[in-house]
Amino acid sequence: MTSLKKTFIAATIALIPCSSFAAQQLTEEQANSMQSYKSITIRGAFYTDSDYVMAMSKAADNEGAASFYITTTNISPSNDTLRIVYAKLYKSDAPKAVEKAESLRKFEGVYEYPKSKAVRLEPFNIVRIRGYFPTDYDINQAIAKEASAQGAYGFYIDSRSEIGSNLQIAAYIFKKDAPERKLQPEDAIPYDSEAGQLALAKGGDAAMQVEKPGYYSPSAFNEKYYADKFNNKVIDKTTTTTTTATTAKVATSSSTETTTSVVTEPQRVTRYTVTLPDGRKIQELNDATAAKMVAFDTLKFRGYYVTDQEISYQAGKRAIEAGAKYYHIARVAHDTKGPNITVFIDLYR
To answer: CATH assignment of 106-180+221-256, given 1.10.760.10, 3.10.20.120, 2.30.170.40, 3.30.1660.10?
Structure first.
């Protein structure tokens, strides 16, 4: 879903060839591995993502940079057609980024992992408990106790939901030497799109930009997938009796159903999806993915919309009617007089 002011690029825009300029765009991972020596800002009437990437490449080259990383793009408050783009610059011999020492909390002898660390690692089990936990400390203690009993080195609490006065918590637990998950890039091109099929046919680096079957979403865990994979049951801690019974059931399941096979399904990048009343659906592309694809058409519409969801719904509805598989909100322009906005959307097959 887009932001009304387009204030932040959630994932880095793909590398766009800049044959006329030396400065090349970095991925987020590449940028995080190096130290920037300078930050710059450019302004201009950029109507597509590739326009401001090319302009930034030229500006970075003029500053003597070998590469750049775009961090943010805003629409000027004084001129709705003017974009302001911010980037960090890097020398060809840029020193490596200084790694920050991890400072992790520990409960029951088990480390609490942040999401940024946990999402990169493959859990060896999932812990789901239900009970009355008045504070976050109680939640961490309860999860850590279960994790410790299974020999875990770290845990990550992924979700919590209220059930009456109780909470149901889902957490993933990890071994010290947990293998890394195969993550899908946030800016991966949908493999069922025209751009995806063309990139696969081209092969090489182009094909590497397409969604890969069997790779995980980089932004979230799939609780149902892992619960099925590990034959996991919810541990009920609302009473001592049910706790004992549930624990026994979990133990029985693990010993008698170890031969159950789990089909590993591709976990595609999670995109905002618009669903119409008749069941038709369409997904919204982020800036980074859209920059890798070529739109077959562009539409615009005007009206008064209060929330991002309203904008995305109206954009998705029009994109579906135009025969698109995907859409991207390229720009949102606010009227100089009055509360209405004009939304520009790119359509993709």
So the answer is: 3.30.1660.10
Taking domain 24-90, whether its CATH number is 3.30.1660.10 is answered by yes
Q: Provide DSSP, 244-293.
A: HHHHHHHHHHHHH-TT--------PPP--EEE-TTS-EEEEPPHHHHTTS
- Which sequence spans correspond to the domains of the chain? 24-90, 106-180+221-256, 273-348
Q: In the prediction, which pLDDT does 9 show?
A: 41
Q: How many CB atoms lie within 10 A of CB 245?
A: 12
Rounded alpha-carbon distances, angstroms, from residue 103 to 111, 145, 176: 10, 20, 16
Instruction: Report how far residue 21's alpha carbon sits from residue 19's, in angstroms, rounded to the nearest whole number.
Output: 6
Reported as a single tens digit per residue, the pLDDT across 45-67 is 887 777 888 899 999 999 999 99
Single pTM value for the model? 0.47
- How far apart CA 80 and CA 338 sit, in angstroms, is 13
Block residue for tokens 């044959």:
19
Please compute Rg for the chain using Cα positions: 24
Higher pLDDT, 181 or 99: 181
Q: Does domain 273-348 have CATH number 2.40.30.60?
A: no
